[in-house]
Fold:
Amino acid sequence: MADAFKQVDDLHLVRLTKRYGEHAAVDDLTLTIPAGSFFALLGPSGCGKTTTLRMVAGLEVPSEGMIRIGEQDITHLRPFKRPVNTVFQSYALFPHMDIFENVAFGLRRRGEKNVELRVNEMLDLVELGPMARRRPAQLSGGQQQRVAVARALINRPDVLLLDEPLGALDLKLRRQMQIELKRIQTEVGITFVHVTHDQEEAMTMADTIAVMNQGRIEQLGAPQDIYDTPHTAFAANFLGQSNMLPGEVVGRDGIVTVRAFGQVVRLPQEKVSTDADRIIVGVRPEKLHLHREGTEVPAGRNTLDGVVTDASFVGVSTQYLVATSWGQELIAFEQNMGSATRPAVGERVVVSWEPGHSFGLDGGDDLNAGIEEDLREVGHYTASDAQAGLAPTPAVGG
Structure:
């Protein structure tokens, strides 16, 4: 199947800007998306990801900058003249046509030959061959989405743009389609650019993620790299959950030693993204382990004392909230591995984690950056608050 798609070049966005009055929806964005990759633009509503996609599609005109595929400047080409196709969340299928004719529509308009052969190839690719003569209303949401993908791919674009393509599907079907879209992309070998606000979706499907915030790229990299070593509080909070400890560096010798709320924690220098003396130490909830009082903690681990305030069974794991002596609640995920006795609410515990599982951020970052507004309980808590001796609200770390 990949042989049917010609070899393509990288997609280049060069100082791309889109303004609406005084507001820059996309702000001086420079980005290269490698040919044949599955690339995700990830961010909250209003961060500029959809506007970026629409400029590549030709549905928005850039205020400044250039869009190239290889050496071909497509910045001002009409949408239908670009080697780009788009799949929208709404699918936009023709309800009066069967699936075969929906997929064949573009070929027939251009008077192409071998329509039947090419449509059947596309329907086989998306595993809908036996349903060729059904109408869209007779298909599930996931099947309609695959028809939309087939209709876009049959034109053999250099780049396929996906604008929140799974947003209308329920959770189980969405997860199935994540795997299916990745399979299709791998098979055809062309560039997929996927816009989403769903962190799990981006991490499941993409080779590379660009985390966007206020029209700019906050961090760019492989999903695991961004997750394990975020460079900003926004990236740490938007791509998963994090526990954050503002503190002061008291030693650097390959290992960075930090004093936070009277406690000492350590982390590797390569996991710290700042040279500042005030930093934020972050650790993901699944990296934390709870030890009941009187049990031994392995040597070399960071430790904090606390009291379990909540335990929620969520299937594969149990989510714990642990209150520290300074009022912060840490989140810990423990896998449910069997019949081992779990700490109870109200029980004192020691929270531990490997130093290498920490990451260090600039101490001036807003600890709530990247957290959806409705998940914040009371205001903001910053490293400056910590320096002033103010206790965080229970929402910090979530």
Summary: Residues 116 and 174 are 30 Å apart (CA to CA).
